[in-house]
Amino acid sequence: MTAPAAWASEFAKRGVSVSTKKNIVKQKLSVAATGDPKQGKSHFWTTFPKPIVCLYTDTNTQTADGFISDGKEGDITMLRMPSVGDASKSASDDWSFYSTQFVPAVQNREIEAETIAIDSYSSLADTLVRHIKGGGEMTIPAWGRVLSSHQDRMYALLSATQHIEGKRNYNIVVTCHLVGDTGKSDTILKYVPAIQGAFKHKFNGMFGSVFIMRSETTKEVINDRMTSTGVEHFMLTAPPSDMYNCGDGVGGKAGLNALPPKLENTYEALVAAWGKK
Predict the structure, then answer these.
(1) For residues 212-250, b (16+ Cβ closer than 10 Å) or e, as one string?
(2) How do residues 91-111 score in pLDDT, each as one tens digit?
(3) 154 is a domain residue
(4) Is 120 exposed, middle or buried (0-12, 13-18, 19+ CB in 10 A)?
(5) With 90 as the cut, is the pLDDT of residue 161 above it?
(6) Do β-strands 262-264 and 115-119 pair in parallel, antiparallel, or remain unpaired?
(7) Hey, CA dihedral for 79, 41, 31, 276, is it positive or negative?
(8) 65-79: per-residue pLDDT in tens?
(9) What is the per-residue pLDDT for 157?
(10) Does residue 155 belong to any structural domain of this protein?
(11) In a domain, 22, yes or no
């Protein structure tokens, strides 16, 4: 009978990702950064190891453009969807680019980067629904295709965090807005990823860690007037209430510390709190 180490080594030679005690420490991070607009989601991924390649799907690029301008040449490369600036392109072209070009390039580790980011998945998910819908109506089978497309591509994307001997792997950060889910009532029951269809209930489970980005404005009384003096950006690593889902899926095991419930929203603060070397 072949020893486990021997057949694991043989599969590794064939390009299969094999997790063992020896190489598990070489796995990179998969993180979902969720939250409302203007809460620091884009700021978070820009603090990860560089170079960073980001598929930027939001219409507002001012925030990300600012980070690129402030950084060094080559630190951050931002890819836009084909329909941006080309009226002849459609949602089908955008989803095709993501599904058949971007994801395979990440999965095959062809991109020269330390970190891959998608900002935001909410916008990308809308593209998929428009692609599947076309000029018709969304049927139950159509929603099934939406779910399977999301899952298939996300599994492929996140596989690139795994260590394969002789190949690069990436930290992967995906941002997503949050929306109130009312179910069949008029009351918000839960805040969930802003993704149409059933994938919003599966999104968080795809990642090693899920954090909620928040910001608070500090105010002081100056000349008898309440004045804003700054903004503090941070992330929540534990649900602030039972209406939210998030969690530290890495800390507390493999020699890493459990995270405090509130943390500065930077890569450096994150790995320092984990005690990750």
Answers:
(1) bbbbeeeeeeeeeeeeeeeeebbbbbeeeeeebbbbbbb
(2) 899 999 999 999 999 999 999
(3) yes
(4) buried
(5) yes
(6) unpaired
(7) positive
(8) 777 777 666 789 999
(9) 97
(10) yes
(11) no
CATH number of the domain encompassing residue 51? 3.40.50.300
CA distances from 178 to 55, 92, 122, 189 (A): 19, 24, 9, 13
Q: What sign for the dihedral angle of Cα 109, 111, 115, 118?
A: negative
244 belongs to a structural domain: yes
**How far apart are the C-alpha atoms of 171 and 48, rounded to whole Å?**
8
Lowest mean pLDDT among 13-17, 77-81, 213-217, 246-250: 13-17
Q: Which pair of structure tokens corresponds to residue 163?
A: 């260590």
**Residue 194 belongs to domain spanning:** 31-274
pLDDT of 1 = 42
3-state SS, residue 214: strand
| Ranges 127-136, 207-216, 266-275: which has the least confidence | 127-136
Closest C-alpha to 233, from 208, 210, 265, 194:
265
Tell me if 249 sits within 8 A of 259, measured CB to CB.
no
252 vs 97: CA distance, rounded Å: 38
Whole-angstrom distance, CA of residue 245 vs CA of residue 239: 6
Specify whether the CB–CB gap between 213 and 161 falls below 8 A.
no
Alpha carbons 51 and 210: distance in angstroms, whole number = 22
Rounded to an integer, what is the distance from CA 31 to the centroid of its chain?
5
Instruction: Classify 246 as helix, strand or coil.
Output: coil
At a CB cut-off of 8 Å and minimum separation 6, what does 184 contact?
none
Q: How many domains does the chain fold into?
A: 1
